Structures are given as C-alpha cells and as structure tokens.
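Slide 14.
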Amino acid sequence: MNIFQLKNKIVEKLEEKRDDFLTSFNRKEEMLRVERKDNGKGLDIALSKAVDKAKNDENFIEEIVYYINETLDRMKEEDIGLDEASIYPVIRSTSFHKQNKNGDAFIVDDHTNETNIYYAVDFQNSYRLIDEKLIKSLGLDKEALRKLADQNMKQLPVSHKGETIQENDFYFINHNDGYDATRILNEEMLDSMHEKFDGEMLVGLPHQDVLIIANVRNSVGYDIMAQMMMQYFAEGLTPITSLSFSYRDKKLEPVLILGKQKNHKRGREE
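Slide 15: predicted structure.
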C-alpha cells in the first residue's frame, strides 16, 4: 500500500459514514486535509506516518476514519457549557501549531525543551483543544483552567504492562483514552516509580497514546530505549518526541541516546 492508496481508502470509508465533508491532498507534505462543508473546520492527517502501520494492520485505517468522523462531528458544536466539559492537559511537541485554523491562539504552557502543555475539552470519543476564544466561553481564566485540568489529570487511572530485557525493566502505560502521554504530568506516579528503581529512570512519550518508563541498569538498556522510542514515534498518529527524558529530583531532562545494539532478546513479562 502506498500513500495514494491509503488516502483513497480513508476517503472511501469515510464516505460510507457521511457526505458533509471535502478533502484535499498536499502531495509535497503527504498530508490529507478533511473539513466540514458547512463551516470549513477540519483536520490534517499525516499519511506518511500512517502508511507503514496501515500495511500491516487493516484495523488501523478504521481507527483513522473513526478519529476523523468523531472530530468532524465535534467541530459542528460551537457552544460548550462548563457543566458538560471535562478538561484535561495534553502534551504536544514544541513544533505543534500554536493557533487553530481561524487564527485563535491555543492555551499553551511550557513543559520541557521538547514538549508543551495544551488543554482540551473532552467529549469521551474525541476532544477539542482550548483556545483563547473557547476559554472565554467557558467562563474560566487560565489559572482556573490549569487547576481544573490538573485535578482531572490526577484522577486518570494508571496501570502498566512490564517487560524485562537483558536486566532492564520497561513499563508501558497505554489506556487508549487519548491521555497516555498526559500521565507524564502525574508527579506522584513518577516519584513512586523512581523510589523503587535501582537504575536510571528514563521516561518517553513518543506519541499521544503511550508513555514508556524504564529502569535502566546497563548500557544495553539505553540502546533498547532508543530503539523503542524511534519505533513508537514513527507509528503514532500524534507524534511528540523521539527523545527520552531522565527523571530525577522531580525534573525531566532530555537525553540523546544513539542506539547501536540490535535484536535484543526479550525476557520475562511482569
């Protein structure tokens, strides 16, 4: 499957669900634009990052179409009441858009050299990033928004699957709720894991839907973490960063790891 075949499949499957949208395709950037006919609001899908995964997983195309369909539905809604809004912080790369298509600036806070914090109104199946116009309609100032989002973030469940590879422990947080990367803001969770680790604690958020935490005990562990980060970063619909972070003293510091080892044998799962 190539980029053009993937584009055609996405459009074909979306047409089975609705007919109130228009599409355009940027060949140079390999970006599919889908927007509503009534108000021109829409979203961009980077097909270059999705084509490899779509080759091996037909369901991945269904996931993309579901995401587009839900997002287009929510873009029809203009009036959002605070009583119906669940607000969460979300992590994005520092290169992510700072304003929406209408030119309204998003609410953005600094996080690390590689990441920023945005805020979103959650609709269970999708969410909308909060901009200056929306925050006014919600009747919130920025400090109240931050506090509300932080409270909701701390209530997100945290569970993980563990795997040990050549004496290094890797933990994967993957709830598929759109806020896996957001959990990096849960300082209590990070501190709790750090206390139990006997090696260096690395944290990775390659894309929106996974958070990787590693207890690295030897040089091989750094190589494995680098390989994992590159793989997940390439596969994610909303990539964030391929760099890992060292966590100590409640601080995240970017770590550049040049992976050299390959084909590491996997050990036990926890």
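Speaker note: The CA atoms of residues 84 and 123 lie 9 Å apart.
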